[in-house]
Amino acid sequence: MDRVSVESPTGLEDVVLRRWRDEEWAEGLVAREAAALAAVRGHGVPAPRLLAMDEDGSETGVQCTLTSALTGHPDLSPTDMQSWLDQLATTQAAIHAVPNHPPARWHRWSERSRPLDWLADPRAAERRPTGGRGATSRGGGAGARRLPAL
Asked: Can you point out the beta strands (E) in 55-125?
């Protein structure tokens, strides 16, 4: 996942490019991500706007999504744990209150054997999973454009 700044008609804009290699475990993730972003739009959930997608990699050589970038950054070491948990619970409640949201299917792509200590210990970043995590699929989000080949 890469956050990049691009020139747009309204000036410099930050966008996020997520790319996924052609991996069997990723089947359906691009379409589900697009559907989830479309589902939460307008329901008070802080989520990026889907700008473009390449569901099967036929246009860009890799399955990917391009979204608007959210402001801020993840806080994986909160100083006020209660406030952090309250914010997390409020956001999760808003997500689960969305009518007809796409079902989650974690079992197809989680790696239970991968250590998650990097989530709690910023110094463990070298053990953080990298690259190739994410999506593929058939389907599309409303208003998403196909990405042109580079």
From this structure: 63-68
pTM over 0.90: no
Q: In DSSP terms, which residues pair with 112 in a beta bridge?
A: none
CB distance 47 to 95 below 8 Å: no
d(CA 103, CA 27): 15
pLDDT, tens only, 87-129: 999 999 998 888 876 666 555 445 555 666 666 665 655 544 4
Closest CA relative to residue 15, chosen from 51, 42, 44: 51
Instruction: In whole angstroms, give the CA distance from residue 17 to residue 2.
Output: 5
**Alpha helices (runs of H) in the chain, residue ranges in sequence order:** 29-40, 81-96, 117-120
* Residues whose CB falls within 8 Å of the CB of residue 40, separated by 6 or more in sequence, listed in order: 47, 95, 98, 101
